[in-house]
Amino acid sequence: MVKNGSGKLTKKHPLGLKINPPIFWISSIIIIGSMIIEIVCDQTIAHVFSYLRLWVCEYTGWFFVLVVNVILFYIIYLFFSRYGKLKLGGRESKPEFNFFEWFSMIFCAGIGIGLVFFGTAEPLFHYINPPPMGVTAKSVEAANLAMALTFFHWGLHGWALYCLVGLGLGFFAFSKKLPLTVSSVFYPIIGKKIYGPMGKAIDIFACVATLFGLATSLAMAVSQINGGVNYILGTPITPTVQIALVIIITACVIISVIGGVYSGIKRLSIITIVLAFFLMAFVFITGPTAFILNAIPQNLGNYFNRFWEISLFTETFAGSHWQNSWTIFYWAWWITWAPFAGMFIARISKGRTIKEFIFGVLLAPTLLAFLWFTVFGTSALYMEMFLDAGLSRVMDKEISTVIFTFFQNLRLSGITSITGIILAALFFITSSNSATLVLSIMTAGGKTNPPNAQRIFWASIQGLVAIALMLHGGLECLQSATLVAGLPLTVILLAMLFSLKKGLREEYGQQPLG
Question: Transmembrane region positions (predicted)?
Answer without folding.
Answer: 21-40, 60-80, 100-121, 154-174, 201-223, 243-263, 270-296, 328-346, 358-383, 418-444, 456-475, 481-500
